[in-house]
Amino acid sequence: DIVDIKPANMEELTEVITAAEFHPHHCNTFVYSSSKGTIRLCDMRSSALCDHHTKFFEEPEDPSSRSFFSEIISSISDVKFSNNGRYMMTRDYLSVKVWDLNMESRPVETYQVHEYLRSKLCSLYENDCIFDKFECCWNGSDSTIMTGSYNNFFRTFERETQRDTTLEASRESSKPRAILKPRKVCTSGKRKKDEITVDSLDFNKKILHTAWHPMENIIAVAATNNLYLFQEKVN
Length: 235
Prior knowledge:
Blueprint: E1 17-22, E2 29-34, E3 39-43, E4 55-57, H1 70-74, E5 78-81, E6 87-91, E7 95-100, E8 109-112, H2 121-126, E9 136-138, E10 144-148, E11 153-158, E12 164-168, E13 184-186, E14 195-197, E15 207-212, E16 218-223, E17 226-231
Parallel strand pairs: 13-14
Antiparallel strand pairs: 1-2, 2-3, 3-4, 5-6, 6-7, 7-8, 9-10, 10-11, 11-12, 15-16, 16-17
Organism: Nicator chloris
GO molecular function, one term: protein phosphatase regulator activity
GO cellular component, one term: protein phosphatase type 2A complex
């Protein structure tokens, strides 16, 4: 074991490791995330057993927004270093956060993946969906990030422009030369023709696993027992 946070008495277990990854350029450095929403960066040059971290990343919680579900939805399900090694990205239940490795106090970017589900947390707790573990990934240049959602939706976020897009992986979209059309979830008011309401989302259809080709604009998303590959349109 490189890290061992197991308590002497398992009844005292309050935190578990949820994800871990080595730095892309420094093989002695790695990070691991926890169910309490924290990230620890460790350096194996200082010790072979990294029970003591070098850096500790945690976003301060807003006391006014605390609820019964706060600890569950803050649990980190995935952590990924950027390809250039300067940043890391974490995924919790409702959002994706980008952290600068030189700034431990708070993320430098936060992207809301499906904030419209906040009002549905009670139902999502009852059907166990609130415990789903979504992954996230960078594109080759670190300029765009991607993660999954429900209804076979997946989201992309362009970091410089803050432009976000919702796309759907379906049998229709997987036909040869099919063009993916952006989807939108209606959160309030009158629903437009191409929109889908929060109440009609299918929570059994979920994209937990995503991957981006390191050099090409090709993405892979896993939806239940289907794997979809999409490529950027070439004129």
